[in-house]
């Protein structure tokens, strides 16, 4: 069925094996492999001279060998989508679609690097985002095997804000890319606030861009085995390099195999992930990278939809166990398949004119077998009603983005101008059947499981087709240290819905178009301080339907943001402060009772975020984040003045780790983090609250030669708390203590 969020962040990154230089994989780039020789008779003397001067300029701007200092990413040729040594990324292409320094980007962008993911032991995208200001990737807790509920600045963006290498992957609440394995990502980038001026249909809160690992010019390899809580066993590998002596063909292969369970009884979490990539450089001006990935998950249904009585507060002194399973063990599956294939093409016509084309086909399939709680039938006795469902969902998506970038001057102004044309076509098909069992109720304190079930009647059979065409333009203008950013986009969207349920088939369609814009101004002082102001808009056509079967109207959004970024001179660090005012109209909210969405009106989100990252060469890593988000329903038939569920007023986190550099214990790394999530409202009417929680994480690792042995423990104190509630009968536990040990060998 279609089911269809005032501290600085420090990141001190210690490179893997920083104590032993030979254990590090050197920073690599695919920008300048050995140039392929050409017969003199083929090229004209003018063309040859142009290429020679261009090559000379490049060689003078880049080091001859791909080395990287641990103290400064900015001086090492970091690319917007390339690897980062440590926690501090200095460049990104997510906000502007151009390779732009973050200190010159007038919008909030948070980058989670592979080093941060590794040090914190994150095994999902949701876990990787736990130390990011204003963001939650696991709103529903660690037992959500869907890996859903991505929240940015108080708004759920699961269905609208998931991108892979800058191309949106349409989603439903069951089939989405938020569950892609983080091991396949070079970096995870969160662009906060409306961004339709560049990306077309996208949510108000922002977007998450999963930047995949690309082939490298340096030969390398890594193999890891790990095991830990919930009978989890995993193997993973990442390897690649040049396929020929000239360095014009590069390759990479990344993979994960996992067999595991979750804290919920009878619920598996098994995975196979593979991602090959090949880069071709036929000449110094052209690069094409072929990319693909495949992920197959065989999991159980992790969300139990438990009552607030017995989770948020005691039920006559009793508490429902965190491991409680509300379903039928013989009918429990959440199986997904995700596959993509595409390419990234870049060609330089001249030094100042570049054409890029990104193309991807994506296939997603989900099979769901579940019984989950529907609320007490007898609260005193602990008898819980259950609903059973069997469904299959399919999403096929094709997307292509064509970009032409030019750099030029007009008098005293310098310009980086981008024009683009993109197209996306999406088809969604969902069927769902009711399922019954001889024991429709279960006791939450003394469960006795039934194993029989019977397939009932079909209650959902819909198909949705959507095509979107967008034309956009952007100009990044510089006048000395003062810069301006102007952008606009026109979108044309057609959506068609077919409902094939007896007694009659119905078909409806909706056309929509919109112009969205973005404007910003920024000033970069000599001391590394850069204040900015930005205005941006969003436009989001819906793939969802109302209970009456009608297509929903597009959501729209507007944001005003003022902020300051600080990149201290001589430090590998970046600090940001942002204050924002977001307004989201035609808000679509999921209603569990109907399994459809309804548009409630308008929600405002206002707040501040402070974030920073810093990586020092002496082996100390520190990262911290804080967000204050005041979200409120401002237009609604019932709940005006109420706060949306699952949005805490305050959220803060701090992570620090240190690696000994000298002495007998050189290579020993230890660290930890603390995460605080404030109280949230548990229902739309704000009649009860879900309490706040503070959780501790820990790291202990040792690196010697090419080996690394590590132990990560999340929720060290095994704090029991409720992650979220969507009503009195829709609460989810957060994940308890989880320990994972890992042994890694790199060469």
TrEMBL record:
TonB-dependent receptor plug domain: residues covered: 102-207
CDD domains referenced in this protein's UniProt entry, alphabetically: ligand_gated_channel
Xref: SUPFAM superfamilies: Porins
Record-level GO cellular component terms: cell outer membrane
Region listing for Disordered, in residue ranges: 35-87
Membrane-topology descriptor: Multi-pass membrane protein
Biased composition (Low complexity): 39-61
Biased composition (Polar residues): 62-75
Gene3D superfamilies found in the cross-reference section: TonB-dependent receptor, beta-barrel domain (2.40.170.20), TonB-dependent receptor, plug domain (2.170.130.10)
Residue ranges constituting the TonB-dependent receptor-like beta-barrel domain according to the UniProt record: 282-716
GO MF annotations, alphabetized: siderophore uptake transmembrane transporter activity; signaling receptor activity
GO terms for biological process, alphabetical: siderophore transport
Similarity annotation: Belongs to the TonB-dependent receptor family.
Protein name: Iron complex outermembrane recepter protein
Organism: Bradyrhizobium shewense
């Amino acid at each position: 069925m279609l089911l269809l969020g005032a501290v600085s962040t420090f990141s001190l990154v210690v490179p893997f094996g920083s104590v032993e230089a030979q254990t590090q994989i050197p920073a690599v780039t695919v920008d300048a492999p050995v140039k392929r020789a050409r017969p003199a008779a083929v090229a004209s003397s003018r063309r040859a001279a142009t290429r020679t001067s261009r090559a000379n300029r490049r060689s003078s701007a880049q080091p001859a060998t791909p080395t990287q200092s641990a103290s400064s990413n900015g001086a090492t040729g970091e690319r917007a989508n390339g690897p980062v040594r440590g926690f501090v990324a200095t460049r990104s292409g997510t906000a502007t679609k151009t390779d732009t320094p973050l200190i010159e980007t007038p919008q909030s962008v948070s980058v989670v690097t592979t080093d941060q993911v590794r040090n914190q032991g994150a095994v999902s995208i949701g876990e990787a985002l736990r130390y990011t200001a204003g963001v939650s990737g696991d709103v529903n807790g660690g037992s959500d095997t869907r890996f859903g509920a991505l929240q940015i600045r108080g708004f759920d963006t699961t269905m609208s804000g998931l991108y892979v290498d800058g191309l949106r992957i349409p989603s439903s609440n069951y089939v989405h890319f938020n569950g892609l394995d983080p091991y396949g990502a070079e970096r995870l980038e969160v662009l906060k606030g409306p961004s339709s001026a560049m990306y077309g249909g996208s949510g108000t809160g922002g977007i998450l861009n999963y930047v995949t690992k690309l082939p490298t010019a340096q030969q390398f390899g890594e193999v890891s085995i790990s095991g830990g809580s919930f009978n989890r066993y995993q193997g993973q590998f990442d390897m690649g390099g040049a396929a020929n002596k000239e360095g014009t063909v590069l390759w990479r292969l990344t993979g994960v195999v996992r067999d595991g369970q979750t804290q919920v009884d009878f619920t598996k979490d098994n995975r196979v992930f593979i991602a090959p990539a090949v880069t071709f450089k036929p000449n110094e001006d052209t690069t094409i990278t072929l990319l693909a990935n495949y992920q197959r998950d065989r999991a159980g249904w992790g969300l139990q939809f438990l009552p607030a009585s017995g989770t948020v507060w005691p039920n006559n002194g009793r508490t429902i166990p965190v491991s409680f399973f509300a379903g039928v063990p013989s009918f429990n599956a959440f199986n997904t398949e995700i596959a993509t294939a595409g390419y990234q093409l870049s060609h330089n016509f001249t030094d100042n004119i570049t054409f890029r084309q990104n193309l991807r086909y994506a296939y997603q399939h989900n099979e769901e077998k579940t019984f989950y709680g529907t609320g007490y039938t007898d609260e005193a006795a602990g008898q819980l009603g259950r609903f059973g469902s069997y469904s299959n969902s399919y999403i096929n998506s094709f997307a292509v983005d064509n970009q032409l970038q030019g750099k030029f001057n007009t008098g005293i102004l310098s310009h980086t101008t981008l024009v683009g044309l993109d197209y996306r076509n999406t088809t969604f098909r969902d069927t769902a059947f009711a399922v019954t069992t001889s024991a429709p109720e279960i006791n939450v304190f003394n469960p006795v499981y039934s194993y029989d079930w019977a397939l009932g009647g079909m209650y959902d059979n819909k198909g949705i087709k959507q095509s979107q065409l967008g034309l956009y333009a952007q100009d990044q203008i510089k006048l000395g240290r003062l810069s301006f950013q102007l952008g606009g986009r026109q979108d044309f969207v057609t959506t068609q819905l077919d409902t094939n349920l007896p007694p009659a088939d119905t078909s409806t369609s909706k056309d929509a178009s919109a112009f969205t814009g973005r404007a910003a101004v920024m000033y970069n002082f000599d001391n590394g301080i850069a204040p900015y102001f930005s205005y941006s808009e969003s436009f989001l056509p819906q793939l969802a339907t109302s209970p009456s079967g009608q297509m929903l109207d597009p959501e729209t959004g507007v944001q005003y943001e003022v902020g300051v970024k600080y990149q201290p001179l001589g430090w590998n660090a970046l600090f940001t402060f942002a204050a924002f005012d977001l307004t989201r109209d035609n808000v679509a909210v999921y209603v569990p009772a109907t399994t459809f969405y309804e548009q409630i009106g308008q929600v405002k989100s206002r707040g501040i975020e402070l974030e920073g990252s810093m990586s020092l060469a002496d082996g100390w890593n520190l990262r911290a984040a804080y967000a204050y988000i005041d979200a409120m329903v401002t237009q609604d038939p019932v709940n005006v003045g109420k706060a949306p569920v699952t949005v805490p007023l305050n959220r803060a986190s701090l992570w620090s780790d240190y690696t000994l550099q000298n002495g007998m214990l050189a290579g020993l790394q230890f660290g930890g983090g603390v995460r605080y999530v404030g109280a949230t409202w548990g229902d739309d009417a704000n009649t009860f609250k879900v309490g706040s929680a503070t959780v501790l994480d820990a790291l202990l690792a040792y690196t010697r030669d090419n080996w690394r042995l590590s132990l990560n423990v999340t929720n060290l104190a095994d704090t029991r708390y409720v992650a979220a509630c969507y009503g009195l009968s829709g609460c989810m536990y957060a994940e308890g203590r989880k320990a994972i040990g890992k042994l890694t060998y790199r060469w």
